[in-house]
Write a structure and sequence with these properties.
By secondary structure, the protein is α/β, with parallel strands linked by helices. It is built from 14 helices and 12 strands. It is 40% helix and 19% strand. The longest helix is centred in the middle third of the chain and has 32 residues.
């Protein structure tokens, strides 16, 4: 399941520096130029999970495989992108393809790094990108509304729901608010799903602060937190340049020493990846055997056959049952055999809702 979170922001806010930190498979050029990232760089990122480490310790498998999400580094946007300014059309097309947005906002001062819009203003930066996404959505919706109106006049009644939802979306955008905060029902979302509205994507904010503010934040990050509090969105405070340095260490001891120097208990990057995973509404289940201990990504609320399909589609087609041990029971009893002996291994059928952390084994017949 290749779900993507796209890193966006105005030019020179630290997007590519953050991408360099999160991606072990690609390095974006980070430099003080407006459009140094033209094609979106994509990197697969391991999702840190202490539970996977603990299961590995108990099972002692031949290999351990973490789950991953895709992070996409998208070219910097400028005011007027919805009208094609800068690399606007390319930028907006790349956002359309991702499932969630990580919006990097500059919360540091540096006279050597230009800001086209003048003095540092994180709230304004946030609003510039939001406005461009909303303007592009408004343009898309007005075109679809025009078509829907014509079809309704010739009696295509099935378009009524789509038309009503489009009107509701247009009103929301005209109020200067994104579609994500409209709270559309599942049916309403389905009616306009092929519109791929940009402002309907969930957003996570990264306040890129100076080194001195990495633990406490500063006046800029505080202003950003205040600005998003009614959105229910999360703000991760981090120093992207420090995170990029941490990611460069191959030796765990060197990495630990570096983090200790900065009084860090974990990389802020780990928090960001966990938050992005949560933003995408994902859960993890595990398989644990001598050959491998592995984490698998599923959508929250999936049933057992759907969860089995991420291993192989045949597992879903021929699903018979799932043997399930809760993560906590596995840790308490220390092995599958002990869980079985103590009645902690459950047999679940097709309607079972997989819980985050379940340790599972599927029985199937094809």
């Amino acid at each position: 399941m290749a779900l993507q979170a796209g890193i966006v922001g105005l030019p020179n806010v630290g997007k590519s520096t953050l991408f360099n930190a999160v991606s072990s498979s690609a390095k974006a050029q980070a430099s003080n130029y407006r459009f140094c990232t033209i094609e979106p760089n994509t990197g697969l990122v391991n999702v840190p999970d202490p539970r996977l480490d603990k299961l590995t310790e108990l099972v002692q498998p031949n290999r351990t495989v973490p789950t991953q999400i895709e992070i996409v580094d998208i070219a910097g946007l400028v005011r007027g992108a919805s009208k094609g300014e800068g690399l606007g059309n390319k930028f907006l097309a790349n956002i359309r393809e991702v499932d969630a947005i990580i919006h990097v906002i500059r919360c540091f001062e540096d006279e050597n790094i230009l800001r086209d819009e003048g003095p540092i203003n994180p709230v304004s930066d946030k609003e510039i990108i939001e406005t461009e996404l909303q303007l592009k959505d408004l343009d898309s919706i007005e075109k679809r509304l025009s078509r829907a109106e014509k079809m309704l006049k010739i009696g295509d009644a099935k378009l009524k729901l789509e038309y009503d939802v489009l009107v509701k979306c247009k009103d929301q955008l005209n109020r200067g608010k994104g579609i994500h905060s409209l709270g559309l029902t599942k049916e309403e979302k389905a009616a306009i799903a092929d519109s791929f509205l940009l402002s309907d994507k969930p957003v996570l904010y990264v306040a890129n602060v100076d080194e001195a503010s990495m633990h406490t934040g500063n006046k800029y990050s505080a202003a950003l937190i205040e600005a998003v509090k009614n959105e229910g969105a999360e703000v991760i405070i981090m120093t992207n340049a420090i995170e990029a340095q941490i990611a460069e260490f191959d030796n765990p001891d060197d990495k630990a020493m570096f983090m200790e120097e900065y009084k860090m208990t974990e990389p802020a990057l780990d928090r960001l990846i966990h938050s992005a995973y949560k933003l995408l509404n994902l859960s993890t289940y595990f398989t644990a055997g001598v050959q491998e201990v592995r984490a698998w990504t599923i959508h929250h609320g999936w049933k057992a056959p759907q969860a089995a399909s991420v291993i192989h589609t045949d597992f879903e087609k021929g699903f018979i049952k799932a043997e399930v041990i809760s993560y906590q029971d596995f840790i308490t009893y220390k092995s599958e055999a002990a869980c079985r002996e103590n009645g902690r291994l459950r047999i679940e059928g097709k309607e079972y809702l997989v819980q985050d952390g379940d340790v599972m084994h599927f029985r199937f017949n094809v």
